[in-house]
Design goal:
mainly alpha; about 60% helix; about 0% strand; 24 helices; 4 strands; two-stranded antiparallel sheet
């Protein structure tokens, strides 16, 4: 799609960003978008936003490693849905073939082709959800690539987290256990704060992301204030009297509310992941001047919020005491589920059991465990559903994208916001080791949007290596060159090393125009072999000294004639400024060729 020009592009970009914010804010309010109608509505909205973002133009998202490395995973999902002969299925996925032969003996005996997935409707649903997350990444990278919109995205996360924390605490203290007058399922814990989520752990993951983003924003913002006076108390007084002090006070109050809501969830994984996120923000912005101020204040705010929500209950939760009679899988049970999931991945290492087919595969392998829809480890479940190659490709794409964000942003403001978006994903990534947060569409949407905004900020940073690489990767017309004939390969292999050495003497020397400072034209070559080797074999004039006189092959002069004054036989002396009547420096006059003056 050709990008729009002028005001149309601005309007389309604003509309796409508005749809993105509406989806990100509305998905958690719709019970985490776990119902079919909720995530399908989000998918349609993000599809419209994707079309608008593609028409508006922006960052070259096609160069993102996540999209390129997600292609093998998409190919594996398509292969899982493609019917194959039973013989071929026994070669690529023997465990799946045995399970299908046991479940569908008539079709196997009739010689029908079967798909590798053990749950084809679940695989289709997982593919649609993956398309939703990729669309969120694309729209965020295109539309949230400016500091103003990236800051608006982070502020929306803080506002949403504060509302979730306040609503969760109100519902917890009221004892209703409802979400907008809708009662939670019977098997879900109701005495813990959960906001508009069904599960308190997923609610805690969103609050952990919001707390980390708030601390990172405050730390990076204090580092951007400039030099602070020496001494902690003087620096604190300077920050308190700064014109932006009310905004930072509001952020501090938001951290307190978020910490209270997080403590009310009684989620061990959520609290630990929030601590890791705050530590990651402090380590990432360690050079900022506000680390010594923000991190202790953030710790105090978290402690205050925990005390407000009941710190004793949190400590009892960590001690393993049961506060209610509802089922609460312990760490040993989660570890057992993870090991069984890895066993499923070992049985089908190439194609996996099928994207979204974990429940059916786990129930067939362990009939005594009923109702386990997700493993309590997102990484292990992805390994079992997609197989080792596809899961490894997704992991490599995520790591390379994060690496480009860290190394790509050059402008200070863009770099601070990009790193803030990236460090906000640390709690979700660590909490997913013991829970299935990435299986909740609302949390996965926020993760994709934050990662896309971080990559867009790094890609749009002027002068960054990522921006230069993206500009070189833009598609354009390229001249077609016929490949050499096979009989010429041997000749090229023999003649290339010989011609490479002779090229320096046979190739015409480049000339440059006279510089404004008065230097004569130079070939740009340096007589130092070390300088040539340091530039990869290319001649380069060393900076900080005048160019050498160009070497010219003058005809042999007759015997008895005086040598010509041009060119000189030795390297010219370095330039020294000479003062004129006005006191300004000017370059030395160079002799006119053929006159000696």
């Amino acid at each position: 799609m050709r990008p729009a020009a002028g005001g149309g592009a601005v309007l389309l970009g604003a509309a796409a960003f508005g749809l993105l914010l509406a989806t990100l804010v509305g998905a958690p309010l719709l019970f985490g978008a776990v119902t079919t109608w909720a995530w399908t509505t989000a998918l349609v909205t993000m599809a419209i936003a994707g079309l608008a973002a593609a028409a508006a133009g922006g960052a070259p998202v096609a160069a993102a490693p996540l999209l390129r490395w997600a292609a093998p995973a998409g190919a594996v999902v398509v292969l899982q849905l493609t019917p194959l002969p039973v013989g071929a299925l026994e070669v690529v996925a023997p465990a799946n073939a045995a399970a299908l032969a046991q479940a569908l003996p008539e079709r196997v005996a009739a010689g029908e082709w079967l798909a590798a997935s053990l749950d084809r409707p679940g695989t289709v649903e997982a593919a649609l959800k993956a398309a939703l997350y990729l669309l969120a990444f694309f729209v965020a990278a295109r539309t949230a690539s400016t500091p103003r919109r990236a800051r608006a995205l982070l502020v929306a996360l803080l506002v949403l987290g504060a509302f979730q924390a306040f609503y969760g605490l109100v519902e917890q203290f009221a004892g209703a256990g409802r979400i907008f007058a809708w009662s939670r399922p019977a098997g879900v814990v109701k005495s813990r704060a959960a906001g508009t989520y069904v599960n308190p752990n997923h609610y805690a993951a969103l609050l952990a992301m919001a707390i980390t983003a708030a601390v990172a924003l405050a730390t990076a913002g204090l580092g951007a204030l400039g030099p602070l006076p020496r001494g902690r108390w003087r620096a604190a007084l300077a920050v308190a009297t700064h014109p932006e002090a009310p905004k930072r006070a509001l952020v501090a109050f938001t951290v307190v509310v978020l910490a209270a809501g997080l403590a009310g969830s009684l989620s061990k994984g959520g609290i630990l992941s929030a601590m890791l996120g705050i530590a990651g923000a402090a380590a990432l912005f360690a050079r900022a001047r506000g680390v010594a101020l923000v991190v202790p204040l953030a710790a105090a705010a978290v402690a205050l919020g925990g005390a407000a929500a009941g710190l004793a209950r949190v400590l009892e939760r960590f001690r393993g005491l049961t506060l209610d009679g509802a089922a609460d899988p312990s760490l040993a049970a989660r570890l057992s589920y993870t090991l069984d999931t890895l066993d499923l991945a070992w049985r089908s290492p190439l194609l996996g059991v099928g994207a979204g087919a974990f429940e059916a595969a786990f129930l067939r392998a362990h009939p005594q465990v009923v109702g386990l829809e997700h493993a309590h480890a997102d990484y292990a479940q992805a390994l079992a559903e997609l197989g080792v190659p596809a899961a490894a490709a997704l992991l490599v794409g995520l790591v390379l994208t994060a690496r480009q964000v860290v190394r790509g942003a050059a402008e200070p403001e863009r770099r601070r916001l990009a790193l803030t978006c990236l460090v906000a994903l640390v709690p979700l990534a660590t909490h997913s080791l013991v829970d299935f947060n990435l299986r909740i569409p609302a949390n996965a949407l926020w993760a994709a949007a934050l990662l896309g905004a971080a990559w867009g900020l790094a890609a749009q940073a002027a002068g960054s290596a990522l921006a230069r690489r993206a500009r070189r990767a833009r598609p354009g017309p390229r001249p077609w060159r016929a490949p050499p004939a096979p009989r010429q390969w041997l000749w090229h292999a023999i003649a290339w090393p010989i011609g490479r050495r002779a090229r320096w003497s046979s190739a015409p020397r480049p000339t440059t125009a006279p510089s404004p400072s008065g230097w004569p034209p130079s070939s740009g070559r340096s007589r130092s072999g070390r300088a040539r080797r340091a530039t990869g074999g290319r001649w380069r004039r060393r900076a900080g000294r005048p160019p050498a006189w160009p070497r010219s092959r003058a005809p042999a002069r007759p015997l008895g004639s005086s040598p010509a004054p041009w060119p000189p036989r030795r390297r010219s002396r370095p330039w020294r400024p000479s003062s004129c009547a006005c006191g300004s420096a000017r370059p030395r006059r160079w002799p006119t060729p053929g006159t000696g003056r």
